[in-house]
What does this fold into?
Amino acid sequence: MLTLFLVLLPGIVSAQNLEERVVEHIYPNGLKLLMIERHTSPTVAPYILFKAGSVDESDDSHGIAHMLEHMLFKGTKTIGTTDYENEKVVLDKIDTIGDQLDLERAKGNRADAATIAELEESLKGLQEKAEQYAVPGEYTEIYTKHGSTGFNAGTSVDFTIYTVELPSNKLELWAMLESDRLKNAVLRQFYVEREAVKEERRMSVDSQPGGKLYEQFMAAAFTAHPYGTPIIGWPSDIALLNRKKAETFFKTYYAPNNSIMVIVGDINVEKTIKLIEKYFGDIPSQPLPDEVTVKEPQQEGERRIEVEFDAEPRLMIGFHKPTVPNFDDYVLDMISAILSDGRTSRFYKNIVEESIAVSANSINGYPGARYDNLFVINASPSSPHTTTDVEEAIYAQLEILKNEPVEEKEFKRILKQIDAGFIRALSSNAGMARQLAFYESIAGDWRYILDWRKKMYEITPDDIMRVANTYFNKSNRTVATLVKKEKVMTADTIMEESQ
It folds into this structure.
């Protein structure tokens, strides 16, 4: 262990320095700012995370967190428009006609086709009129012009994060643009973008075997908790999203006291504190809704589903488990590394190298980490093996974890990989910003990054056997299999196959 300590000493020093270098500042409106000065290059990575994910949506607005993320790139009262005052008049009319159209369509078979056609024509005309005022992509154009990269956003079940990297002398430009987005956002082109999200769903879920399997797997694993609802929303959810729902979600969750701002790079801490105060300090805090109180009931038997798709077979297995800061969550991180981290992992050596599966991987903490979640295993069989063969091989490896202590040699390998991964994750400004924002939001304290590392060194072979026996049980698992659709035999297909 002394040799291992000497090898990992630079990483340990880095971890200690991290605790000393992160500067925290909380403003009167509740906005929390985390900063690290890094003068290795004249760049900066400012990230803003809002605790506003799909898990926070109401039953009549599934998909609105993701939809809002799209809409916040459309601009403000001054960006993305040539004449907001006249544009607003048209946007209000679009909302009225759009709501009427959605209500009529929602009637299904009872809907009046003539009314729908009339409303569709009215909406189309109003949208064309609104387009005369819109300046598409102006946000992106401004950032690109000033040397930025990585201008993007992402919505998860737990949060939405807005990212960019840019020259450090453009930090004030970022503060001006992002504060304007929070104060004066205009959710223009809503129905146009809603169609784009429908297409995104078709491309990423409905036409993708992996997306389809994952969605159905999550829905089967979570019967009560909103983790079972897809981030993008079900098709019927997307069809009824409107600007009013998006604005309500925006006003409720995009509050300074519900956000984390992280700025890493070539900055001066004192000047940065004043800069953020100048642009964000006057945004009022908001009373926040309660956290999700629904708890997923204890599973009382294995759940199995099949998803039919014209693709090669795949397998997903999930086990319910607690989230941070439960110690078992740390142990399951270690177990995941043992099973599938690299070519020396157990899944790779005993399943992939044996040609039972093309791939076999595990991940701890799906689909999010704010609430109790899943330990998930994904695998694709290698012909002529089946998903049944792969499933049996996976369970055999889990049984070994339950009954045989992990040897010290394997522990050392995993701990070395953990330290290497720790350093890699924090090496760039963007990586550091993302890690700090994530853990401050999920664990309530960015120092979880350091605590996690310490806890990994405390795990014993007995812990691994105990946790494996606790969670890797048939009654606690959900299994989803992707199977090929059976051909419907017609006279024509019979003739084709006989030729």
Observations:
- The longest strand covers residues 357-366.
- The chain is about 50% helix and 15% strand.
